[in-house]
Design brief:
By secondary structure, the protein is α+β, with helices and mostly antiparallel strands. It has 7 helices and 7 strands; from the N terminus they run βααβββαβαβααβα. The chain has helices at about 15-25, 45-50, 95-105, 120-125, 135-145, 150-155, 160-170, and strands spanning about 5, 55-60, 65-75, 75-85, 110-115, 130, 155-160. The termini are far apart.
């Protein structure tokens, strides 16, 4: 594959939209039913995201767009937004190359939001050094840096890179997540031995 990464242009709009909606098919039947719709992203939504400062980089093979990844500057952090690879080309390193590229464009801590049920996406980002923040911190970050409905907040997770974790990370960051978005926590030690002190 003779592919290169470059910033998208207006002429790439329809291709970006097509890749997002093709790849987002993986969410069907996985994310909560009330969060799924067809198409997953509408034209007006993509326009709005771009108007709000999401810049897209894409991997191209000639004029064919293979995968996209957006980045949005949010003052003290950079957000990775709308990262998708054509379904038939997933697993070939396109997402990894795009992630490496967008990370090289910013010297700010980087955050990523994704669906709690999208275990493959969480695994991908963890493989590349991101860690999930705690549920409380996730709620705070989604409220501060994203503009999404409360229901989406409830069904999402946030992952942070090492720069963010080194600065803001907390001890309870990143407990494993089950399919419904609940976090699995290690059982707390029994406190029965000190109950007589109360």
């Amino acid at each position: 594959m003779n592919a290169d990464i470059r910033k998208t242009k207006e002429r790439d709009f329809e291709s970006i939209l097509a890749v997002i909606n093709d790849a987002a098919g993986a969410y069907r039947g996985v994310i909560p039913a009330d969060r799924w719709r067809e198409p997953y992203m509408r034209r007006d939504e993509l326009r709005q995201e771009m108007a709000c400062g999401v810049d897209f980089w894409a991997m191209f093979d000639g004029e064919s767009l293979l995968g996209v990844m957006g980045m949005q500057d949010k003052n003290d952090v950079s957000l990775v937004r709308h990262a998708y690879t054509i379904t038939t080309l997933q697993g070939q390193g396109i997402g990894a190359r795009l992630l490496h590229h967008v990370r090289s464009l910013s010297n700010k801590p980087m955050l990523i939001g994704t669906w709690a049920a999208a275990s493959w996406a969480i695994g991908f980002y963890e493989k590349h050094g991101f860690k999930m923040v705690s549920p409380a911190e996730k709620n705070r970050l989604l409220g501060k840096y994203w503009s999404i409905p409360q229901r989406q907040v409830e069904t999402s997770v946030v992952l942070a890179d090492s720069a963010w974790m080194d600065t803001y990370g907390q001890e309870d960051a990143a407990q494993p997540v089950v399919g419904d978005g609940r976090q699995l926590r290690k059982p707390r030690p029994s406190r029965r031995h000190d109950q007589h002190r109360r």
